[in-house]
Amino acid sequence: MEIPIEKIFLAQKMMIYKCNIVGKHVVLATQMLESMIKSLRPTRAEATNVANAVLDGTDCVMLSGESAAGAYPEIAVKIMRRICIKAKSSLDYGAIFKEMIRSTPLPIIPLESLASSTVRIANKGAKLIVVLIHGGTTAKLVAKYHLTVPILSMVVPVLTTDSFDWTCSDESPVRHSLVYQGLVPILVEGSAKATYAESTEVILEAALKLSNPERPLQS
User: Fold this and answer.
1) Where do the Pyruvate kinase C-terminal domain residues begin and end (predicted)?
2) For the chain, how big is the Rg over CA atoms in Å?
């Protein structure tokens, strides 16, 4: 409300860009398809607004009145989905990766270096990236580079004990990952008996099975 109307688009683009550089997720909810509260079709300006949000680097676009109180909530979601898919297909992912690398503050922390190297290798022909996480930081760093391939984020619960009771971390990392574009979070089953190597083997096999249903799991 305090920004002059002619500068709103600049503020929006600046905030999205700065969030992209540091790997913070961006949710854009600015009356995306408001005319669809009463109409079967959005205006051309609204459709363009959704597409530009995706092109600028937004992770998530959000409907409010269109789906909460509108006459055509399902159609509004389907139209927004089609616009997002079309906009993503026109992105230059190679240029995005180079810009991210150029803008990353120096010195690069080891985790950032690992994430960027993973993306660099994946861009040469990988079909899927599998990331094993506890809190989600690594997967989010990989996702910030806006890959063309999906990132399967296997969230491994943390099991702790005080010698009397066992407790398991909740599914918060899975829920949070849903907001980041490109991340497909899966909550795997934790085990207190299996070694780390054994758990990793089982989780990787499950990830490969999910990505290729025709591939049988090894016994």
Assistant:
1) 112-207
2) 20
